[in-house]
């Protein structure tokens, strides 16, 4: 278990995009909290963190549409429990004035922007017409005007999986600091796009593409527990991090109304941070207990010999409404 807590905090549902693969189906501000309640939510987490430092990814919706975004950012930046901050954005609203205000936050280290294709045609068919050019231009602007680490985030689906090697090369050419690769899970407005979920052999090929691009050698089964990857570009070297599921351990998602989820793609509420203590939610959650108990998992996941792999509970729940079902992307 880590000595830090990680939160993906969705401070608003409002968004100026309607991406095909979006896990939201509400794009209003109806469930947003005011600044006072947002501060209560964070103090709840901080007071029950047990001395752990906290890393927060602020996102939405589109986080820059939140009226008191910068007031919250300032509070988090000054809080003694906060170790590091990042912003996840679609990249369309970035300008010099906004970047100057972001630069005042000492603990804000990364700006993560979304690209879902190596070409305008592919990316814009998933996200929005014109988004590819806007993101590329704003990546260049951030590199010119700031010292933030710039990380590209992409969601792998059938519509774009064939372009991944080209997208990796584009990111290297753009001189971004990294690329995060995650799997598409049909939720929210994309719940009916189950045909876009890649198959297990396609996911195996994606993993192979990552290793071939980086000229690394790997045994397939060594990376089987990884549900996402982070390529970190360095001046003299490139690092690859594989993300195993840490469900219920040190990483959670917070929704705009303070509901707590095991992760954003595991769409089952386990509590609300305005009504319950964070540590109590985690201790008492039957969902977390069952989902992390390998003896309760079904199919191949229940009998799997990989001790550190529980499959993807989020994918199982999205596809069959049974979070204990086997992970359909396992290639064993």
How would you describe this protein?
With 332 residues, the chain is of the alpha/beta class. The protein is 31% helix and 20% strand. Helix 3 links the parallel strand 3 and strand 4. Helix 1 packs parallel to helix 2 and helix 6 runs parallel beside helix 7. The chain is globular, with a radius of gyration of 19 Å. The mean pLDDT is 95.
What order do the helices and strands come in, and which of them pair?
Elements: E1 4-10, H1 35-47, E2 53-59, H2 69-78, E3 82-89, H3 96-102, E4 108-114, H4 120-126, H5 131-145, E5 149-156, H6 164-174, E6 178-183, H7 200-213, E7 226-233, E8 238-244, E9 251-254, E10 259-261, E11 271-272, H8 278-284, H9 286-291, H10 299-303, H11 313-320
Parallel strand pairs: 1-2, 1-9, 2-3, 3-4, 4-5, 5-6
Antiparallel strand pairs: 6-7, 7-8, 9-10, 10-11
| Mean pLDDT level | 95
Which shape, going by the Cα principal axes? globular
Low-confidence stretches: none
- What radius of gyration results from the CA coordinates? 19 Å
* Helical percentage: 25-40%
Instruction: Tell me the span between the first and last alpha carbons.
Output: 27 Å
Question: How many distinct helices?
Answer: 11
Element pattern in H and E = EHEHEHEHHEHEHEEEEEHHHH
| Number of DSSP E strands | 11
